[in-house]
Amino acid sequence: MARVERSRTPRPDIPRSPLRRLLRTRLDGVRALPAAVRRGCRARRTPPTAVLVQPPHPWARALGLTAVTVLGAWLGLVLLGTFHAPVGPMDTSMALRPSLTGGTRINVSPLGDLELRSHDAPVRLDVDVDRLDPVRSQALVAHPERFAGLQDEVTRDVTRGALGLALQSCVAVASGATALGLAVYRRPRRALAAGGLALTLLGASATAAYATWNPKSVLEPKFSGLLSSAPSVVGNARSIVSEFNVYQKELARLVTNVTKLYDATSTLPAYQPDPTTLRVLHVSDIHLNPGSWRIIASLVKQYRINVIIDTGDTMDHGSAAENHFLDPASALGAPYVWVRGNHDSRTTQKYLTGRRNVTVLDNGKVTRIAGVRIAGIGDPQFTPDRSVVAAGDPAERTAGGRLADVLRTERLAGTPVDIALAHNPAAATETDGLVPLALAGHIHHRENTTLPRGTRLMVEGSTGGGGLRAVQNKKPAPVQASVLYLDRGTKRLQAWDEITLGGLGLSRAEVSRHLPRENQPGGTPAPPRPRHPSAPSAGPSSGVLPPPARSPSGSHG
């Protein structure tokens, strides 16, 4: 069948019915709808209008820049403005701080502050006396003729320190203001403007201070803290200015005594600890002598001390200004156990409570450190408070009775206490028969007795050599501490070493060994004590003690 060839010519229009034409028209309208909608939306769209932002007033911009500059300069001074400078035998830290009254504040820690109305400017000069450098002090002691030129040396050191502080402060305020300006404005030009304004303000403050400088302000100082009750430690300012030759001699004696104390510490002989014993360092009555911390740290290191026991009077007046003196107690190298003395206030006790590596005992509280159970009670009296009449030994015996009640309770519970602590020997005596060993202080000299019911009472001398005031004495008091050797199993006292430094001003160290009567040849051994239920089992002690560490001038007991 032949295939019909399709025609390539367009078909002629076929007449459509009215219905089809209507449908075709409606369909074309629907297809064109989106374009029409878009054209209508464009026609109805509101043309954008420009929003005008009112620029800040010039005064507001200036005020904001000033605020950023002042805050940045203050932060810079706090973070970067401290300048460390030696002044004579002392190491000091100098800094400028914003202030409405100006002036100079000298911090002599732990004694307190000395304030001078040296100038009127929006900055205050703060000077902190950090420490007495033993090397420079030793040079003064070795060459006493240098004291004659000490005034000129101090003047030169202060001048160099002031110049260094000025440069350090310029860098600090410029850096602080520029950094804060960059963080706030994010524009280098504004940040540099803040740094320049900070330098301008610092220069204006320095000019005001120079214009109002009052060198006579040293004649009318204002004491605060401990210095207000003991200005004799630093001397009268008017007498220092008018009679500097006399002050020179007092300063020479002060520097000599403190330096000799450091020398005496360094002469302590080496010691090899015995692993069969626990070693307890007993100190007492430091009385604000800063050199005592160095002595204690040296003994802890040389004797491998397991625990330090301080029977109080670490302070002198118990004021809050003295508290920072206690900061080294946390870093002596061994746990530090402390009871309050009659020169230690409740403020002192609160400051020490909770500090790292420090345990405060009071009201018969019991603690266990290095396997030794220790209980203690604080002194019931605070004698620096002259508004309260001292209650004397009756109050001490009452406090000791409260401690004795706790010891009885612990013994009945099967957890007897190894060592009882009190500051006053009158209180410690009340524990007789309840513990094998009681420790106390207070009387500034050693006493070692066996009480009627068998408790050994060991009273320590002054580890501070009589205290901070001892550095002014012509005849220095000895510095005393003791190392107690306890059996690891029974916690009984095996022996003790009495360590005596020849006082502030005498470079001599003496260590003597002592044995309890029951440990001496032919002595009767002490009866065994019931073991603590939680104590680890241990074999019998060998009874072998290390040889006493003695200096050539030591004695052997």
Automatic annotation (TrEMBL):
Ranges where the record places region Disordered: 514-557
Gene3D superfamilies, alphabetized: 3.60.21.10
Chain ranges passing through the membrane: 62-85, 165-185, 192-213
Pfam family, one: Metallophos
Gene Ontology MF terms: metal ion binding; UDP-2,3-diacylglucosamine hydrolase activity
Superkingdom of this protein's organism: Bacteria
Domain (Calcineurin-like phosphoesterase) ranges: 278-445
GO CC terms: membrane
InterPro entries reported for this sequence: Calcineurin-like_PHP, Metallo-depent_PP-like, Metallophosphoesterase_sf
Keywords associated with the record: Hydrolase, Membrane, Metal-binding, Transmembrane, Transmembrane helix
GO biological process terms held by the UniProt record: lipid A biosynthetic process
Low complexity composition bias: residue spans: 534-544
Transmembrane helix among keywords: yes
Name of this protein: Calcineurin-like phosphoesterase domain-containing protein
Species for this entry: Streptomyces lydicus
